[in-house]
Structures are given as structure tokens and as C-alpha cells.
Amino acid sequence: MAGMVSVAAMAVALAGCSSGGDDSENSGAGIELTVFAAASLQAAFDELAEEFAAEHENVTFAPIVYDGSSVLATQLQSGAHADIFATADESNMQIVVDDGLVAGEPVTFATNELVIAVAPGNPYGIESLEDIAESQDEPDAPVVVMCAQEVPCGAAARNLLELANVSLDVASEEQNVSAVLSRVVAGEADVGFVYRTDVQIAAGEVEGIGIEGAEENPNVYPIALLQASEEQAAAQQFIDFVRSERGASILGGYGFEAP
Length: 259
Fold this sequence. Notes:
Elements: H1 7-10, H2 24-27, E1 31-33, E2 35-38, H3 42-55, E3 59-61, E4 65-67, H4 69-77, E5 84-86, H5 90-98, E6 102-112, E7 114-118, H6 129-135, E8 144-147, H7 152-164, E9 172-174, H8 177-185, E10 191-195, H9 196-201, E11 207-210, E12 219-226, H10 232-243, H11 245-253
Parallel strand pairs: 1-3, 2-4, 2-5, 8-9, 8-10
Antiparallel strand pairs: 5-12, 6-12, 7-10, 7-11
């Protein structure tokens, strides 16, 4: 999408980034950054924020707000304050760009791939989208959950189902991918559409089944500095850290891949 800039072309090491016009970080004044991020980023961004704060002693983070990208975009449109916004797709980022809420241009920093989450042992023997559809004709049909259509994981699931020409009966539609994963982990659902990174984090509690076409149609994750931020220099430095080699290494540890 226009306006999204590849990390490969613009990777910048944190040590060399400029503080811009706001020198509050260098002045010794305390800085608190507020980040809105897609739910699938929680584990990785918690570590990224912790490491960044450890290297910048006068920078702290308000509790990072994690939710579905569409939910967060709506909150920003309604006046919620944040310094940084990271989404699990480009379309929800474009919403805040179109509303003039972003300073500069969003940049992509990671990709993720949708998978099918099932209980350990894969009791329904599901190996494909077609297997799910066929199993729904059985008396003991599996309970299927996915994200709502406006949420990136929901849009991705529907796109892959359309590509496979498969239709499913869905028991519930959740507002973020963490809710989908939680229902499968809790045994409230037998099949859920989540990201590869979610299955990695929940190792032992669910199994992940690859989806044909998912690798060729990954979710792209952009991040942006928000216009309303009063700490734009420090916020930009955190964005640069996320996009740095060290940031990519942390993200890779949770299963994210470079764009």
C-alpha cells in the first residue's frame, strides 16, 4: 500500500538515530510513552519496551494498550491519546492516516502468517480448511471461532477461505486474536484462526496447522508516530529500535518475520 515503507530499505540502528526537535530525553526530564499495539504483538512489544526503557533511563512506558487493530483505530479516532500505533494490517493503519492522526508515514516492521489452532493431539485430525468444512457435517462437529471481519486476523481468515472456496459455520467472532486463542486453549472452541506467533507463544496448549496460501498472503505490520504525541523524539527512537537489527531479533524470537 502507498505510504508503507519497507524495513529492508530503511532499517536504522538506534544508536545512530536523531532525537529530532524534541530534546526532552537528552535533558534528563522524565518521559512516559503510550503505545497502542495489535494484540498479537503483546509478548514481543513487552520485551521491546522493557529493553528500550533499560537503555534509556528517563523513558518509561504506560501500560501498553493491546487490542484488535480496528478497535484501537476507533479509539484513536475518538480522541484516545497515544504516541505510537502498531497494527497487524495496513488497512487499519490507513484509517488513522486518512484522519490525519499520523506524523509522517507509517513503516512496516514485521509480517505474520495465519494458522489453524487446534487442541493438542489434533483430535479432529484437521489438516486443511476443507477438513474443517467436512467435519462440520458430523454429529460431533468442532466449534470454530475466528476474529471479526474488521479485525486483521478475521479479514485474513476470510481471504484464505475465499481463496480455497470454503465456507464455515462460525460459533463466535472475537475482537482480537488473543480472545480466539484463549477460547481454544480453554477448550471452549476446537478450531481457531490465529497467527503463527500465537501458536508459538502457547506451545503445548495448542497445535498449529498451516493453511494453504497463508505464506503467500501474510499480514503486514506497520508502525507509526502519532501527530498528537508530545514526546515525538523519544517515540521515534522507540520506532527506530523496533525496526533495528536488535528489534528484528526480538520480534524473530516470537515468530515474526521481516517484511
